[in-house]
Amino acid sequence: MTKHVIDKPKDRSEIRAREYMRLEREETPHAAVRGLHARSLGARGAARMREFLRIERGREA
Length: 61
Prior knowledge:
Blueprint: H1 13-27, H2 31-38, H3 42-56
């Protein structure tokens, strides 16, 4: 005797895919954040970085 149409389990692959996408979206950084990290410092930023590193190493003026 076969099961009735209603007695068959539902396909959960859609729910799994939706939850997977939600988790991926929450864990990965936003596109704007990725853009800021990828942006180069430029001439002014590089000079500032050199000064910060100089101070961090303990060399004052």
